[in-house]
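Researcher: We're teaching a course module on how sequence relates to structure. For the next exercise, students receive a sequence and then see the predicted structure as tokens, so they can try to spot secondary structure elements on their own. Here is the exercise chain.
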Amino acid sequence: MKYLALIILLACTILSVSIYFTKNYQYRDYVIKAKSNEVKVYNVNVNLADWYELSNLPGIGESLAKRIVEDRETNGRFESVEDLLRVKGIGQAKFDKFKKYLTMEVTI
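Model: And here is the predicted structure for the students to work with:
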């Protein structure tokens, strides 16, 4: 009986964790570093990405990524990727480096 209860508890834990990750990450795209040190970049949604995801984009460091997230929380969602120009520290030249990696669309 103990083993059956332990198996059920383990199954419920695995199910809960998988549901958590499915719900929290289903709308995000990622920057992934491959084993060959080649960086594969996928579109990052500026309204869903956290600072860590943004900091992996070319020209965006940790502090700028945190300012982007802070601006989004303060002023609301970005209506277009060009709205990132309102963030202190992002000029047109810097924006041009990473704009091709950004999206506004939600993919399912």
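Model: If you want an answer key for the exercise: The two ends are 42 Å apart (CA to CA). The CA atoms of residues 28 and 48 lie 7 Å apart.
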